[in-house]
Structure formats: structure tokens, C-alpha cells
Write a structure and sequence with these properties.
about 190 residues; alpha/beta; 7 helices; about 30% helix
Length: about 190
């Protein structure tokens, strides 16, 4: 996964609340396990609505409780494949939030007034290093778990984190290996 430091550019606005993963990527498109090719089906049912237009910008400003519903990991894959690198919302579903961070998509929690102002600005900067979102001459700080921040800054998915501990794992395994039968104490 690609490291994230600064995401800069246009802001797409999705001012809907309680957007669930079935709306992000409907079930009929979940028949494969590759992580690419889902962007064309993003918000598939809504895309049929007259006047629907969701520009392919790096930042998405969304409503509260974004990513609720089932825990499908295809939803962050579809958002990332569409071109989003950061999603800014007042709240996220817990599993969705976690899935985003595992694929290199940065979820940012900001108060709803700031999310709305970011969307109105139309352009923004999400700086993970400094933990700020900048738009319209303002900077708004955001919090993120230090371990998640480390993973995103260094482009580490679960496998990358495990490989980073390879020496410690090898030491542990070699200490457990000993000649003779394995016995258990009762």
C-alpha cells in the first residue's frame, strides 16, 4: 500500500448520513477478491439518479455514520479505486474505519461544521504528518491513533506490519524449538 503524508486537491461532497456499505458497493459486485476494479460500481444505485455527479477527487466530505451496515472490505476498495485517498466525516462505522486504514484510505473525523466548510471550499489539504485539514485559509486539527498513523505514513498493511517484526518472530520461534518430545505440565 502507498504511504500517505499529504493529500491535496479537490473535495467531492456526499451530504448523506448513514451511508452503508451496501450503498457504497452493492452486493452484486462482490463476486471477486481482487482489490481493484470496484470504482466503476461505487454508489451504483445512486449514480442512476438524475443529476448525480460525484467528481473523482482525492478527498470525500461525507455525512455522519459513513460506512455503516455490513463490514465488507470491498467498500474501502471501491472508494480507493474511484480515486479517493481521504474521507472526512463527523463519524464512521468502526469496522469500516478500520478497513479503510488497512487499504491505505485515510478516514478523518471532524465536526460536522468543519466537514461542511471543507465541502464548500471545494479544495483542501489533509496532512497526516501534522494531523491537520487545511481549507479556505483555515487549519483544523484531527486525532488519529498513533499506530494507525504510523501504518499509513509508512504504507504498512497487516502483512507489512508482520514483516516488520520478522526478526522478533524468528527469535521467538527459535527459542521454542528444542530437541526431544514436547511435554505439557498438568
Amino acid at each position: 500500500m502507498e504511504p500517505i503524508r499529504v493529500i491535496e486537491g479537490g473535495v467531492s461532497v456526499l451530504p448523506r448520513h448513514d451511508v452503508d456499505t451496501d450503498q457504497i458497493i452493492p452486493k452484486q459486485f462482490l463476486k471477486r477478491v481482487e482489490r481493484t476494479g470496484f470504482g466503476e460500481f461505487l454508489f451504483y444505485d445512486w449514480a442512476k439518479e438524475p443529476g448525480w455527479n460525484l467528481p473523482r477527487n482525492p478527498i470525500l466530505a461525507a455525512g455522519r455514520n459513513f460506512g455503516c451496515g455490513s463490514s465488507r472490505e470491498h467498500a474501502p476498495w471501491a472508494l480507493e479505486d474511484y480515486g479517493f485517498r481521504a474521507i472526512v466525516a463527523p463519524s464512521f462505522a468502526d469496522i469500516f474505519y478500520s478497513n479503510c486504514t488497512k487499504v491505505g484510505l485515510l478516514p478523518v473525523l471532524l465536526p460536522k461544521e468543519d466537514v461542511r466548510a471543507l465541502g464548500e471550499a471545494g479544495e483542501g489539504i489533509v496532512d497526516l504528518d501534522r494531523q491537520v485539514v487545511a481549507f479556505a485559509g483555515r487549519e483544523v486539527a484531527f486525532e488519529i491513533d498513533p499506530e494507525i498513523r504510523h501504518r499509513l505514513l509508512n504504507g504498512l498493511d497487516d502483512i507489512g506490519v508482520t514483516l516488520g517484526n520478522e526478526d522478533a518472530i524468528e527469535r521467538y520461534e527459535s527459542e521454542r524449538e528444542r530437541p526431544g518430545p514436547v511435554t505439557t505440565a498438568l
